Amino acid sequence: MLREPSSIVLSQTGGPLYQQIVNQIRERIAFAEWAPGEELPSIRQLAADLRVSVITVKRAYLELEREGVIVTQQGKGSFVTTDVEIGAQLYEEKMAGHLEQAARLGATLGMSDREIVSRLRKALDEVEDPRPVAPKTSKESQ
Known about the structure:
The protein is mainly alpha-helical. The protein has two domains: 17-82, Winged helix-like DNA-binding domain superfamily/Winged helix DNA-binding domain (Arc Repressor Mutant, subunit A); 85-126, no CATH class. The chain is 52% helix and 6% strand. It is built from five helices and two strands, in the order αααββαα. It has helices at residues 17-30, 43-50, 54-66, 84-108, 113-126, and strands at residues 70-73, 77-80. A two-stranded antiparallel ribbon has the order 1-2. The protein starts with 16 loop residues before the first helix and ends in a 16-residue tail after the last helix. Keywords: DNA-binding, Transcription, Transcription regulation. Residues 15-83 form the HTH gntR-type domain. Pfam families: GntR. InterPro entries: Tscrpt_reg_HTH_GntR, WH-like_DNA-bd_sf, WH_DNA-bd_sf.
């Protein structure tokens, strides 16, 4: 089993429940918390643990499967894709989103591009390199 279902936390004010499930699973895969090939909780089990409808979890799993993030094997369950390119892509998308959010905030506060970049550099200098290692793509491991 992948992780304790309690690692997924839903909020009544955080948007559609299925989308919250999708986003949290994508994030865990993006940051390599959930490894390629690991089994996800069954749809019924996750629905029971989260106290949501089976349809809600099924919708989330179907979206993740459509995106190629998970694969479902009839009679066996759902698993994190073994395609490491997907994990790397999710990581890049997550990082791009955070950087875009920082840029928008800086612009909203009236900061120049140069000042935003300067603040980002300063923040990087103050951090003790807590960066998770992004999943390697097949191109990088060659």
